[in-house]
Amino acid sequence: RPLEMSAKKPVPFLRQVVSVKKKVHRDPRFDDLSGEYKPEIFMKTYSFLDSIKKQEKEMVQKQLKKCRNTEEKEKLQQLLNRMTQQEQVQKNQQKLRERELSLKRQQRELAKQGKKPFFLKKSEKRKLELAEKYSELKRSGKLESFLNKKRKRNAIKDKRRLPSQK
Fold first, then answer.
1. For 51-56, what is the mean pLDDT?
2. What is the DSSP string of 127-161?
């Protein structure tokens, strides 16, 4: 119970206060106690979320078909677009991870054979990725439209870089 003091005496300047331990906040993203982040393990652990997301996407699609209100329909369409974009990004990240793992496996095999490991530069990785993207677009038949868009984009950039002719 707290100590009773007289109200008639002035309070001393330096009085004894019970020290309270400061609460230390930890951020699990940057703390070593939480362990090391490994995307493969994370994906395996939370793979059940993919099925839940798929169900939610189907529900949103059904609601979008039934909806009559234009504002509501717009919101649902934005939500559906965001869900599909997130799904696409996740697939791309998975492909990238698989590609990196396959390259690492190849390097390990070469190292086992006694050869010196060779690691690709970032620029070379980018070139390989671009070549794969082109081959995929060619397979799907969307290469021409992609190249047209790229040409238009580059033309706009070139126009912007040129000094204005007045």
1. 95
2. HHHHHHHHHHHHHHT-HHHHHHHHHHHHHHHHHHH
Please check whether residue 61 is in contact with residue 79, taking contact to mean a CB–CB distance below 8 angstroms. no
Cβ–Cβ contacts within 10 Å for residue 76, how many?
19
Which pLDDT score is estimated for 148? Answer: 94
Local confidence band at 157 (pLDDT 50, 70, 90 cut-offs): very high
User: How many domains are there within the chain?
Assistant: 1
pLDDT in tens, 93-112: 888 888 888 989 999 998 89
Yes or no: say if 117 and 110 are a contact pair by the CB < 8 Å rule.
Answer: yes
97 part of a folded domain: yes
Is the residue at 161 inside a domain?
Answer: no
Instruction: Extract the tokens encoding 165.
Output: 């002719």
Contact indicator for 86, 96 with CB cutoff of 8 Å: no
- Is the residue at 92 inside a domain? yes
Residue 58 backbone class (left: φ over 0; alpha: ψ -120 to 50; beta: rest): alpha
Q: Which amino acid belongs to residue 74?
A: E
Residues present in the chain in total? 166
Q: Which range of residues forms the domain containing residue 106?
A: 35-115
What global pTM score does this model have? 0.63
